Structures are given as structure tokens and as C-alpha cells.
């Protein structure tokens, strides 16, 4: 029987209640990372720094020069057309400890991700109900995040500046500057995405805030309002939204569509993945969701990802029993010598750049 990764998040209160609910077993997400790590001959994991920006700052046009440069590199063989290029993004909206737990697993498996962080977290419910601004707890282990950054992980700003400004655009742009400056005291921040957040007057939201003109040369807008091109995107955002078909939210179905030579983005919100987890009212009754819950609840989780294959490619191997797992604040995965060498080189380059 395959050992299933377990979450180390064990609060005294029920983690599945209220606005911080978890709906999907942690192992489902962790095994997606295992799936990528076990098939590195097929998948190339990228971050936003790997895109071919070439000075392209046309966020309002979805960076056409970057797309042209990437496709040109594929055509000329500078990029491997046999590889599937995968960018993983995590938006850390709440329960940051759940994200940290997932990042430990990714680090152990050598799979880099792009992590979008608030500088301050707004009490979304109170803002929506009363119009009053209140900040909530949002604890991050920046020493750990710095280690991840040295390992090639990317950190960006998750902009909730318009909410913080109570929808005053001029004030929001100053908050944007201040938030980025504060985060940059701890991490390299060169990219940002807009948070969905609570709508304001006329349904305006964080994505409607233009970036401060004086910051255009220093930070790239990469999601929710402006984005570079991808062949296709997946997001688990708004997991209970009645506007989204629950039968089409299975990440495995998205992966099955992947083709060599294409570039894909997977956006997840790690607060949704936890053991134990509650039930999503929107996903409940959907075949894939019930299958996943039953598999991880019964300990028969190996079959969840083992049969997934991508389009036009049969090189994807099943997950190896006992190869990975996270539990009780420790990562039960041996990092091989190749990963250690890669980390050493990455840390060295990071130190050289900092000088």
C-alpha cells in the first residue's frame, strides 16, 4: 500500500469550517507534485523568471514579445519540443501554514513553484459585511522562504492594495508601493498577481488597479488582470462558485490534455488541501471528487494519479510506492545527489547575484 503524504497542520479548532475551509485531501495535491517529479524526462518545471521577457512590459497586451520569443526558441530548437513546460502557481490567500507544508514537499521532490504572498491580509468577510478594514493573522516563515528562493522557487506579491485602500485608487497605488517595498526587505519580488478579494463600488476589484507607473520597469503583472500567454490554464480558484462546472475541476483531466512543446499553468490555493478535510458543497456528488475522497480516506490512493497519461505521449510512469511523503513536521523523502548539487549551484548563484 502506498504511503500517503499527510498534512502537518493540526490546529485545535476544526480546520474545515468557515472561510478557511479545506475540501480536498492533501495527498491529492502532493501526489500531483510526485507525478511531476517522477517524470522529469517529460516535464520541464518553470517559473516566471524562465519566460523570455526580453524587456516586454506590455501587460495590457499580454506580453506579445515574450510569446513571440518563446515560440521562436521552440522553433529554432533552443527549447526542447519534446518537453511539456509546466508553471505551478500558489496564491496564499489564507492559512499560510498549509502552503508552507506543501512547499516542504515540493522542495523535497525538487519541484519549483511560484508563490504569491500578501504583505497584509484583509478580513474579507468583515470588509464585505461592514465596509470596514481589518487585518488578520498571516504568519510566514521567511527564513524558510529564503531557503526556497535559493533553491529556485519564486515569490511574488499578491496584490490586495485596492481592498486595503477601501477602493481609493490613488491610495491603493501607494499601498501597492509600500507592500512591495516591505516584502522586498525579505525576498526578491519581481512579479505580482491581483487577489480576487471583496468587490467594491461598481464591482471594482484588485485586478482593476493599474500598476503604479513608476514601478512598471521593476515588477511584472502575471495573473488576474494581465498575464503572459499559456497554451492552457487550470485554476481551483472560487472552488464553490456556482458559475463553474464542478465536473471540470479535476486537475488530472487538465493534465491529460497536455502535449509536448506546449506551456501550461496550474494555479492552486493550498488552503483547500488538508487532512482531514470537509466537503465542498459545489463539488460534492461529482464523480471525480467522490473518487478522490474515497481513495485517500481508504488508503488506496496510489491509483489516483498512477493511470494519468498526457496526450501523444506514453512516457509517464506511475507513482512509486513509498517514494515520498510528508507528515508530523518532517519530510520523509531522501533528496538525491543530483538535487543536492542543483541546490548548491542555485545557492551559489543567488549569493553572487546578491553581491
Structural summary, described in words:
- The strands form 3 sheets. Strands 1, 2, 3, 6, 7, 8, 9 and 10 form an 8-stranded parallel β-sheet that branches. The protein has a two-stranded antiparallel sheet with strand order 4-5. Strands 11-12 form a two-stranded antiparallel ribbon.
- The chain has 11 helices and 12 strands.
- It has 355 residues and is an alpha/beta fold.
- The termini are far apart.
- The longest helix is centred in the last third of the chain and has 18 residues, at 337-354.
- It has helices at 26-37, 64-75, 96-109, 124-130, 142-150, 161-164, 169-184, 251-256, 287-298, 302-306, 337-354, and strands at residues 43-46, 84-91, 114-117, 121-122, 135-136, 154-159, 191-194, 220-223, 232-235, 263-268, 326-327, 330-331.
- Helix 1 (26-37) packs parallel to helix 3 (96-109).
- Helices cover 32% and strands 14% of the residues.
- The model is unreliable at 1-5, 7-19 and 321-340 (pLDDT under 50).
Amino acid at each position: 500500500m502506498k504511503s500517503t503524504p499527510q498534512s502537518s497542520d493540526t490546529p485545535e479548532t476544526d480546520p474545515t469550517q468557515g472561510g478557511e475551509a479545506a475540501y480536498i485531501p492533501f495527498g491529492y495535491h502532493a501526489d500531483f507534485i510526485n507525478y511531476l517529479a517522477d517524470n522529469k524526462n517529460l516535464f520541464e518545471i518553470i517559473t516566471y523568471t524562465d519566460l523570455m521577457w526580453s524587456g516586454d512590459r506590455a501587460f495590457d497586451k499580454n506580453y506579445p514579445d515574450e510569446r513571440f520569443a518563446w515560440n521562436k526558441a521552440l522553433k529554432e530548437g533552443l527549447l526542447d519540443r519534446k518537453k511539456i513546460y509546466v508553471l505551478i502557481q500558489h496564491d496564499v490567500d489564507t492559512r499560510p501554514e498549509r502552503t508552507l507544508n506543501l512547499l516542504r514537499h515540493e522542495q523535497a521532490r525538487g519541484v519549483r513553484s511560484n508563490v504569491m504572498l500578501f504583505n497584509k491580509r484583509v478580513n474579507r468577510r468583515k470588509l464585505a459585511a461592514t465596509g470596514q478594514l481589518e487585518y488578520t493573522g498571516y504568519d510566514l516563515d521567511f527564513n524558510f522562504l529564503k531557503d526556497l528562493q535559493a533553491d529556485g522557487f519564486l515569490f511574488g506579491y499578491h496584490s490586495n492594495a485596492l481592498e486595503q485602500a477601501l477602493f481609493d485608487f490613488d491610495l491603493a497605488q501607494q499601498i501597492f508601493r509600500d507592500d512591495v517595498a516591505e516584502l522586498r526587505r525579505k525576498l526578491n519580488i519581481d512579479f505580482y498577481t491581483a487577489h480576487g478579494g471583496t468587490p467594491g463600488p461598481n464591482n471594482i476589484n484588485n485586478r482593476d488597479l493599474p500598476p503604479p507607473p513608476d514601478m512598471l520597469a521593476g515588477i511584472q503583472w502575471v495573473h488576474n488582470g494581465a498575464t503572459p500567454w499559456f497554451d492552457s490554464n487550470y485554476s481551483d480558484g472560487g472552488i464553490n462558485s456556482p458559475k463553474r462546472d464542478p465536473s471540470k475541476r479535476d486537475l488530472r483531466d487538465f493534465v491529460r490534455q497536455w502535449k509536448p512543446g506546449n506551456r501550461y499553468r496550474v494555479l492552486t490555493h493550498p488552503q483547500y488541501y488538508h487532512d482531514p478535510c470537509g466537503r465542498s458543497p459545489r463539488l460534492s456528488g461529482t464523480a471525480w471528487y467522490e473518487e478522490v475522497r474515497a481513495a485517500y480516506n481508504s488508503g488506496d490512493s496510489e491509483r489516483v494519479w498512477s493511470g494519468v497519461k498526457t496526450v501523444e505521449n506514453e512516457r509517464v510512469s506511475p507513482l512509486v510506492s513509498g517514494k515520498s511523503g510528508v507528515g508530523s513536521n518532517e519530510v520523509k523523502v531522501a533528496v538525491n545527489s543530483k538535487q543536492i548539487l542543483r541546490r548548491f549551484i542555485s545557492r551559489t548563484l543567488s549569493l553572487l547575484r546578491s553581491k
